[in-house]
Amino acid sequence: MSKIKIEAENLKLFYGDFQALKNINLTMKEKEVTALIGLSGCGKSTFLRCLNRMNDIIPNCHVEGKLTFEGEDIYHPDCDVVALRKKVGMVFQAPNPFPKTVYENVAYAPKLHGTKDRASLDEIVETSLKQAALWDEVKDRLHKPALGLSGGQQQRLCIARALAIKPEVLLMDEPTSALDPISTLKIEELIRELKQHYTIIIVTHNMQQAARVSDRTAFFLVGDLVEVDDTEVIFTNPKDQRTEDYITGRFG
Ligand SMILES: Nc1ncnc2c1ncn2[C@@H]1O[C@H](COP(=O)(O)OP(=O)(O)OP(=O)(O)O)[C@@H](O)[C@H]1O
Protein backbone atom coordinates (compact mmCIF):
# COMPACT_ATOMS: atom_id res chain seq x y z
CA MET A 1 0.00 0.00 0.00
CA SER A 2 1.66 3.25 -1.05
CA LYS A 3 1.81 6.11 1.38
CA ILE A 4 -0.19 9.28 1.09
CA LYS A 5 1.86 12.04 -0.50
CA ILE A 6 -0.68 14.87 -0.67
CA GLU A 7 -4.01 15.09 1.07
CA ALA A 8 -6.83 17.62 0.77
CA GLU A 9 -9.32 17.80 3.60
CA ASN A 10 -12.41 19.97 3.21
CA LEU A 11 -10.44 22.19 0.85
CA LYS A 12 -12.32 25.26 -0.37
CA LEU A 13 -11.04 27.97 -2.68
CA PHE A 14 -12.56 31.37 -3.42
CA TYR A 15 -11.75 33.88 -6.16
CA GLY A 16 -13.22 36.94 -4.41
CA ASP A 17 -16.86 35.97 -3.71
CA PHE A 18 -16.84 33.12 -6.19
CA GLN A 19 -16.28 29.68 -4.71
CA ALA A 20 -14.34 27.61 -7.25
CA LEU A 21 -13.68 24.60 -5.00
CA LYS A 22 -16.40 23.52 -2.59
CA ASN A 23 -15.27 20.90 -0.16
CA ILE A 24 -12.59 18.74 -1.67
CA ASN A 25 -11.41 15.60 0.10
CA LEU A 26 -8.80 13.78 -1.93
CA THR A 27 -5.69 11.76 -1.18
CA MET A 28 -2.90 11.36 -3.70
CA LYS A 29 -0.55 8.47 -3.11
CA GLU A 30 3.17 8.24 -3.64
CA LYS A 31 4.30 6.98 -7.04
CA GLU A 32 0.80 6.85 -8.39
CA VAL A 33 -0.75 8.82 -11.20
CA THR A 34 -3.93 10.63 -10.21
CA ALA A 35 -6.01 12.03 -13.08
CA LEU A 36 -8.36 14.97 -12.55
CA ILE A 37 -11.20 14.94 -15.07
CA GLY A 38 -14.36 16.99 -15.59
CA LEU A 39 -16.00 19.65 -17.71
CA SER A 40 -14.32 22.93 -18.48
CA GLY A 41 -14.47 25.32 -15.53
CA CYS A 42 -15.12 22.69 -12.86
CA GLY A 43 -11.97 23.58 -10.88
CA LYS A 44 -9.39 21.01 -11.99
CA SER A 45 -6.63 23.53 -12.72
CA THR A 46 -7.55 25.53 -9.64
CA PHE A 47 -7.12 22.41 -7.53
CA LEU A 48 -3.84 21.50 -9.24
CA ARG A 49 -2.47 24.99 -8.63
CA CYS A 50 -3.24 24.71 -4.89
CA LEU A 51 -0.79 21.83 -4.64
CA ASN A 52 2.26 24.07 -5.11
CA ARG A 53 0.54 27.30 -4.07
CA MET A 54 0.53 28.75 -7.55
CA ASN A 55 -2.81 30.41 -6.71
CA ASP A 56 -0.95 32.66 -4.25
CA ILE A 57 -0.16 35.05 -7.07
CA ILE A 58 -3.86 35.57 -7.91
CA PRO A 59 -5.30 38.61 -6.10
CA ASN A 60 -8.38 37.98 -3.91
CA CYS A 61 -7.86 34.24 -3.99
CA HIS A 62 -8.18 32.52 -0.64
CA VAL A 63 -8.17 28.98 0.57
CA GLU A 64 -9.87 27.28 3.51
CA GLY A 65 -9.59 23.75 4.85
CA LYS A 66 -6.45 21.70 4.88
CA LEU A 67 -3.91 20.58 2.32
CA THR A 68 -0.89 18.57 3.41
CA PHE A 69 2.31 17.37 1.76
CA GLU A 70 3.61 14.34 3.66
CA GLY A 71 1.55 15.49 6.63
CA GLU A 72 2.87 19.09 6.60
CA ASP A 73 0.32 21.84 6.07
CA ILE A 74 1.01 23.49 2.68
CA TYR A 75 -0.99 26.59 3.65
CA HIS A 76 0.56 27.05 7.11
CA PRO A 77 2.10 30.53 7.44
CA ASP A 78 5.47 28.91 8.19
CA CYS A 79 5.43 26.75 5.04
CA ASP A 80 8.51 27.46 2.92
CA VAL A 81 6.88 27.99 -0.48
CA VAL A 82 10.20 27.94 -2.39
CA ALA A 83 11.03 24.56 -0.85
CA LEU A 84 7.49 23.33 -1.60
CA ARG A 85 7.75 24.32 -5.26
CA LYS A 86 11.09 22.57 -5.47
CA LYS A 87 9.39 19.36 -4.37
CA VAL A 88 6.25 19.91 -6.43
CA GLY A 89 7.17 20.73 -10.04
CA MET A 90 4.78 21.77 -12.76
CA VAL A 91 4.34 21.21 -16.49
CA PHE A 92 1.88 23.43 -18.35
CA GLN A 93 -0.57 22.93 -21.18
CA ALA A 94 1.41 24.53 -23.98
CA PRO A 95 5.13 23.80 -24.14
CA ASN A 96 6.82 26.95 -22.84
CA PRO A 97 10.61 26.57 -23.07
CA PHE A 98 12.66 29.68 -22.35
CA PRO A 99 14.16 31.33 -25.45
CA LYS A 100 17.52 29.83 -24.59
CA THR A 101 19.42 26.72 -25.58
CA VAL A 102 18.26 23.20 -24.78
CA TYR A 103 21.05 22.94 -22.20
CA GLU A 104 20.26 26.28 -20.57
CA ASN A 105 16.59 25.39 -20.23
CA VAL A 106 17.39 22.34 -18.14
CA ALA A 107 20.31 23.92 -16.25
CA TYR A 108 18.37 27.09 -15.42
CA ALA A 109 16.61 26.04 -12.21
CA PRO A 110 19.53 24.04 -10.74
CA LYS A 111 21.74 27.12 -11.31
CA LEU A 112 19.14 29.30 -9.62
CA HIS A 113 19.15 26.90 -6.68
CA GLY A 114 22.94 27.20 -6.37
CA THR A 115 24.54 24.49 -8.55
CA LYS A 116 27.40 26.29 -10.29
CA ASP A 117 29.91 23.60 -11.12
CA ARG A 118 29.91 22.67 -14.81
CA ALA A 119 30.36 18.91 -14.36
CA SER A 120 27.39 18.73 -11.97
CA LEU A 121 25.25 20.77 -14.34
CA ASP A 122 26.27 18.55 -17.28
CA GLU A 123 25.26 15.54 -15.24
CA ILE A 124 21.88 17.03 -14.26
CA VAL A 125 21.16 18.04 -17.86
CA GLU A 126 21.97 14.59 -19.21
CA THR A 127 20.05 12.70 -16.52
CA SER A 128 16.99 14.94 -16.78
CA LEU A 129 16.89 14.70 -20.57
CA LYS A 130 17.27 10.93 -20.37
CA GLN A 131 14.44 10.70 -17.84
CA ALA A 132 12.29 12.81 -20.14
CA ALA A 133 13.09 10.43 -23.04
CA LEU A 134 14.62 13.26 -25.04
CA TRP A 135 18.38 12.76 -24.70
CA ASP A 136 18.91 10.74 -27.88
CA GLU A 137 17.06 13.33 -29.95
CA VAL A 138 18.92 16.36 -28.59
CA LYS A 139 22.34 15.22 -27.44
CA ASP A 140 23.94 16.69 -30.55
CA ARG A 141 22.07 19.98 -30.33
CA LEU A 142 22.31 20.84 -26.65
CA HIS A 143 23.59 24.31 -27.42
CA LYS A 144 21.00 25.08 -30.10
CA PRO A 145 17.83 27.09 -29.38
CA ALA A 146 15.10 25.11 -27.62
CA LEU A 147 12.49 26.89 -29.71
CA GLY A 148 13.87 25.02 -32.73
CA LEU A 149 12.55 21.71 -31.34
CA SER A 150 9.17 20.25 -32.37
CA GLY A 151 6.18 20.84 -30.09
CA GLY A 152 6.38 17.33 -28.64
CA GLN A 153 10.12 17.68 -28.05
CA GLN A 154 9.56 21.06 -26.42
CA GLN A 155 7.04 19.53 -24.02
CA ARG A 156 9.50 16.76 -23.12
CA LEU A 157 12.09 19.47 -22.60
CA CYS A 158 9.70 21.20 -20.20
CA ILE A 159 9.34 17.90 -18.36
CA ALA A 160 13.16 17.59 -18.23
CA ARG A 161 13.31 21.16 -16.94
CA ALA A 162 10.86 20.28 -14.17
CA LEU A 163 12.82 17.11 -13.32
CA ALA A 164 16.14 18.97 -13.12
CA ILE A 165 15.54 20.14 -9.56
CA LYS A 166 14.65 16.60 -8.49
CA PRO A 167 11.05 17.11 -7.47
CA GLU A 168 8.98 14.43 -5.74
CA VAL A 169 5.67 15.38 -7.33
CA LEU A 170 4.92 16.46 -10.90
CA LEU A 171 1.78 18.44 -11.66
CA MET A 172 0.71 18.31 -15.29
CA ASP A 173 -2.02 20.59 -16.59
CA GLU A 174 -3.30 19.08 -19.85
CA PRO A 175 0.28 18.40 -20.96
CA THR A 176 -0.67 16.98 -24.34
CA SER A 177 -3.54 19.19 -25.43
CA ALA A 178 -1.29 21.13 -27.83
CA LEU A 179 0.38 18.01 -29.28
CA ASP A 180 -0.21 15.66 -32.17
CA PRO A 181 -1.23 12.01 -31.49
CA ILE A 182 2.31 10.59 -31.80
CA SER A 183 3.80 13.16 -29.42
CA THR A 184 0.85 12.56 -27.09
CA LEU A 185 1.56 8.83 -26.96
CA LYS A 186 5.23 9.54 -26.24
CA ILE A 187 4.30 11.75 -23.30
CA GLU A 188 1.86 9.11 -22.03
CA GLU A 189 4.57 6.45 -22.24
CA LEU A 190 6.86 8.82 -20.37
CA ILE A 191 4.28 9.37 -17.62
CA ARG A 192 4.07 5.62 -17.09
CA GLU A 193 7.89 5.49 -16.80
CA LEU A 194 8.11 8.50 -14.51
CA LYS A 195 5.66 7.16 -12.00
CA GLN A 196 8.28 4.66 -10.87
CA HIS A 197 10.02 7.62 -9.26
CA TYR A 198 7.49 10.42 -9.00
CA THR A 199 3.99 11.09 -7.79
CA ILE A 200 2.04 12.54 -10.71
CA ILE A 201 -1.18 14.52 -10.79
CA ILE A 202 -2.51 15.21 -14.26
CA VAL A 203 -5.44 17.29 -15.48
CA THR A 204 -6.82 15.96 -18.73
CA HIS A 205 -9.83 16.47 -20.96
CA ASN A 206 -9.01 13.30 -22.75
CA MET A 207 -10.74 10.42 -21.01
CA GLN A 208 -8.84 7.76 -22.92
CA GLN A 209 -5.69 9.42 -21.67
CA ALA A 210 -6.90 9.30 -18.06
CA ALA A 211 -7.76 5.63 -18.58
CA ARG A 212 -4.37 4.87 -20.16
CA VAL A 213 -2.04 6.62 -17.74
CA SER A 214 -3.65 6.94 -14.33
CA ASP A 215 -4.05 4.68 -11.33
CA ARG A 216 -6.74 6.79 -9.70
CA THR A 217 -9.24 9.15 -11.29
CA ALA A 218 -11.09 12.03 -9.65
CA PHE A 219 -14.19 13.44 -11.33
CA PHE A 220 -14.91 17.12 -10.64
CA LEU A 221 -18.19 18.91 -11.35
CA VAL A 222 -18.74 22.65 -10.77
CA GLY A 223 -16.28 22.88 -7.89
CA ASP A 224 -17.25 19.57 -6.27
CA LEU A 225 -15.34 16.35 -6.27
CA VAL A 226 -18.11 13.93 -7.24
CA GLU A 227 -16.20 10.67 -7.13
CA VAL A 228 -12.67 9.31 -6.86
CA ASP A 229 -11.68 5.70 -7.26
CA ASP A 230 -9.32 3.34 -9.04
CA THR A 231 -9.30 4.39 -12.68
CA GLU A 232 -10.66 1.04 -13.79
CA VAL A 233 -13.65 1.39 -11.45
CA ILE A 234 -14.37 4.96 -12.57
CA PHE A 235 -14.40 3.86 -16.21
CA THR A 236 -16.23 0.57 -15.82
CA ASN A 237 -18.39 0.81 -12.75
CA PRO A 238 -18.73 4.36 -11.40
CA LYS A 239 -20.95 4.74 -8.38
CA ASP A 240 -22.38 8.17 -9.14
CA GLN A 241 -24.77 8.67 -12.05
CA ARG A 242 -23.09 12.01 -12.88
CA THR A 243 -19.72 10.27 -13.31
CA GLU A 244 -21.32 7.72 -15.59
CA ASP A 245 -22.99 10.46 -17.62
CA TYR A 246 -19.64 12.23 -18.02
CA ILE A 247 -17.59 9.24 -19.00
CA THR A 248 -20.19 8.02 -21.43
CA GLY A 249 -20.28 11.44 -23.08
CA ARG A 250 -23.80 12.43 -22.03
CA PHE A 251 -22.53 15.72 -20.56
CA GLY A 252 -21.12 18.62 -22.46
N1 LIG B 1 -8.00 33.90 -11.63
C1 LIG B 1 -9.31 33.67 -11.56
N2 LIG B 1 -10.16 34.59 -11.12
C2 LIG B 1 -11.48 34.37 -11.05
N3 LIG B 1 -12.08 33.22 -11.39
C3 LIG B 1 -11.27 32.24 -11.84
C4 LIG B 1 -9.86 32.40 -11.96
N4 LIG B 1 -9.32 31.23 -12.44
C5 LIG B 1 -10.36 30.41 -12.62
N5 LIG B 1 -11.53 30.99 -12.26
C6 LIG B 1 -12.88 30.38 -12.30
O1 LIG B 1 -12.86 29.25 -11.45
C7 LIG B 1 -13.58 28.17 -12.04
C8 LIG B 1 -12.67 26.96 -12.17
O2 LIG B 1 -11.67 27.25 -13.17
P1 LIG B 1 -10.52 26.22 -13.53
O3 LIG B 1 -9.64 26.89 -14.52
O4 LIG B 1 -9.93 25.70 -12.30
O5 LIG B 1 -11.37 25.07 -14.22
P2 LIG B 1 -10.87 23.81 -15.07
O6 LIG B 1 -11.73 22.67 -14.65
O7 LIG B 1 -9.42 23.65 -14.95
O8 LIG B 1 -11.26 24.28 -16.53
P3 LIG B 1 -10.55 23.91 -17.95
O9 LIG B 1 -10.77 22.47 -18.12
O10 LIG B 1 -11.32 24.75 -18.92
O11 LIG B 1 -9.11 24.31 -17.84
C9 LIG B 1 -14.13 28.69 -13.36
O12 LIG B 1 -15.46 29.14 -13.14
C10 LIG B 1 -13.22 29.86 -13.68
O13 LIG B 1 -13.89 30.84 -14.44
From TrEMBL:
Tell me which SUPFAM superfamilies the record gives.
P-loop containing nucleoside triphosphate hydrolases
- Domain ABC transporter residues, every copy: 6-247
The cellular location(s) given in this protein's UniProt record come to: Cell inner membrane
SMART domains, A to Z:
AAA
Its cellular-component GO annotations read: plasma membrane
InterPro entries noted in UniProt: AAA+_ATPase, ABC_transporter-like_ATP-bd, ABC_transporter-like_CS, P-loop_NTPase, PstB-like
Picking any one GO molecular function of the record gives: ATP binding
Protein topology in the membrane: Peripheral membrane protein
Write down the NCBIfam families for this protein, in alphabetical order.
3a0107s01c2
Function, as annotated, reads: Part of the ABC transporter complex PstSACB involved in phosphate import. Responsible for energy coupling to the transport system.
What name does the UniProt record give this protein?
A: Phosphate ABC transporter ATP-binding protein
- Species of origin reads Heliorestis acidaminivorans
Species lineage: Bacteria, Bacillati, Bacillota, Clostridia, Eubacteriales
